[in-house]
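Record pair follows.
FIRST:
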Amino acid sequence: MDFRFSAEEEAFRREVCEFLDREIPERWRELGYGIWEETDESWAITKAWNRKLGEKGWLALSWPKEHGGQARSLIEQLILDEEMAYHGTPTGIETVMTIGWVCPTIMMFGTEEQKRDYLPKAAKGDIVFCVGYSEPGAGSDLAGLQTRAVEDGDVYVINGQKIFTTVAHRADYCWLAARTDPDVPKHKGISMFVVDMKTPGITVRPLINMLGFHSFNEVFFDDVRVPKENLVGEKNRGWYQLAVALDFERSGVWVPAGAKRTLEELVEYCKETQCNGEPLARDPVIRHKLSERAVEIEVNRLICYRITWMQSKGIIANYEASMGKLFSSELLYRLANTGMQILGLHGQLDRGSKWAPLRGKIARAYLSSHSIGIGGGTSEIQRNIIAMRGLELPRG
């Protein structure tokens, strides 16, 4: 097989790298934030960055031109995503959700009016979606969600609670899964809505993560009245739209790209740091661990490449997306754990300490890595999908 990119694609990669080297804000580099860390300052930088990408037509590069994109290939989109993750741009999780998951699903199932209302604004970086999936009693068993949407004239009245809703306190809209028919099998009574987060009856309460950052929230819906035209796709068919959005969520190349950068920084640290008069890079245990992580990053990258290739051919990457999600989650945990083992007690120091190696990056990666195997579907759920849909094994 020929894994090489075309000359045009390589030229685009060079263009991207030159743009990123020139345009990433110096203040962002100073802050050193990751995708799960957010403050008022980092949010302002991210919004400005997204608008800059939107003006260039790169925020939604592969979208059709009528929706604000450039109609570039999915391979070029992959190249852009890969380089942005490797270079550590101010692209936050809200951008991944809005541009990578929610809007492509609206593009597939929404009305023409919905596409006109949301897609061009998202492509310019003017609006952000949060995702209303998980509930206190419905996480891995997402089809068991109980938030209700009841018809009342020309509106749906929504009542219920969502939890771990990322950037709900910042978002303009919520991509909401709600039960519209409680009397049918649970997978068949769910519908998808776009809900304006300024609608009366919505309460957002912060959940502070282990890093001390406010990115997650619990969201309460109390008699929230949503116009019927905000229903996306067919009523009671929302589970299928939700599943499509989850496949988009699970297929990103940003994990191996960011992991590659972290690995390179660890390798450089091991070359420069001595223990008992010898560079850490001479320690056979450390060498083997770093080599293992290098192999895993390459495997993860190729899995993501394959998923993108399938999507570019119109092939639905279902269990393949779960393979990518599972491998990415396990990779991030192993890489962070390797980093902590190499840095020892210094690995616990955060960016505020002058003694913190890699500016505290490993400590934060280690804390955040524990949640990556839960969000977007736990690793156990991914294994079930791979077993049943990929290997055609019976349900356990």
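SECOND:
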Amino acid sequence: MKILHIGIVGAGVAGLCAAAGLARIGHRVQVFDQFDTPAPVGSGLMIQPVGQSVLDIMGCLGRAKDLGATINDMHGTVEKYPWPVLNVAYDPDGLTGETGLAMPRSALFQVLMDAALAAGAQLQPGHTVTNLNIDINIPEKRRLTFENGKESQSFDLVIDAAGARSPISPITAKPLKYGALWGSVDWVDAPEIPATRLTQRYLQAKHMAGVLPLGTPPGSDTPKAAVFWSMKRDDFQVWQDAPIEDWLNMVNHI
């Protein structure tokens, strides 16, 4: 196998996962990100079985499961409607053992960063990438330009994992019509919200409230949950300006 020198732009979930996998099989990997100190952004997420198989290949699925929460099913109901409109179990017949794995983004970030560093990848914080340059004389070589005007060394391969607002992608991101407000809170046992379920409530097709168990992230002794509320982007300012009691009454209504 030819050993490649690989540059990765972005130390999020995708960038760190790529770094861990590529370094693990022997490639020379450098990851560049604008942050000065590694830190995740975002609330909870759910890793599907195929994603868990990737973590397993990289040797970090066990640690991810220790930090996360096992999700056996997803369940959603609509106000005043007697039957669930979302009722999906990962392994309803007990044949495969597959489950979802929910965890805080911070926990997944830590698992992947540790895996990448352990595999030999180099993390380069404080590097804001502004451009990708291809050497005219050696087209297979690529260099990154940084905000301070300096350039990286040449890479055999550059992977863009900087997300929707990537400075080196020709694709222009379009804002989504719907988004979600979210927060991470301590888990509280409640019979109607099982600790192994993604639970959602819908107000027609306008709003969704949800609770996702997250497990216990690094540095905490208390299990967490992500709570979220969907709305149109255009409605955010109206929601923000209204008394919080208006929103609480709506949440209680569903």
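COMMENT: Residues 53 and 61 are 8 Å apart (CA to CA).
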